[in-house]
């Protein structure tokens, strides 16, 4: 759960109650925590920026060094600050944020 002062009393009690519910339902607390961590990691890694960087790395051998560099710089300067943290599904054409 963490120690004081990093975890306030109300938060610690909530975590305790959640843990009790999991155990009472016959769940495995360690497996639940592992699943939650995996989901959080997937959420963090699954951003437009991470997918774009992976795409850039994949396509880079087919481009000149100058073009690859310019493209990445443009993404870093103009695109990532605005939609870099969004999930890759932001490509929906009906969305005003895309």
UniProtKB/TrEMBL annotation:
InterPro entries: Integrase_DNA-bd_sf (IPR038488), Integrase_DNA_bind_dom (IPR025166), Integrase_recombinase_N (IPR010998), Phage_int_M (IPR053876), Phage_Integrase (IPR050808). Residues 48-87 form the Phage integrase central domain. Gene3D superfamilies: 1.10.150.130, Integrase, DNA-binding domain (3.30.160.390). Keywords: DNA integration, DNA-binding. Pfam families: Arm-DNA-bind_3 (PF13356), Phage_int_M (PF22022). Residues 1-35 form the Integrase DNA-binding domain. Belongs to the 'phage' integrase family. This is Integrase. It comes from Pragia fontium.
């Amino acid at each position: 759960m963490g120690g004081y002062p990093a975890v306030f009393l109300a938060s610690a009690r909530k975590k305790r109650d959640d843990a009790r519910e999991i155990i009472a339902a016959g769940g495995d607390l360690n497996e639940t925590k592992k699943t939650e961590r995996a989901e959080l990691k997937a959420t963090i890694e699954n951003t437009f920026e991470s997918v774009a960087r992976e795409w850039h790395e994949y396509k880079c051998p087919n481009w000149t060094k100058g073009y690859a560099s310019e493209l990445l710089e443009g993404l870093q300067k103009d695109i990532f600050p605005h939609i870099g943290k969004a999930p890759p599904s932001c490509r929906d054409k009906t969305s005003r944020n895309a």
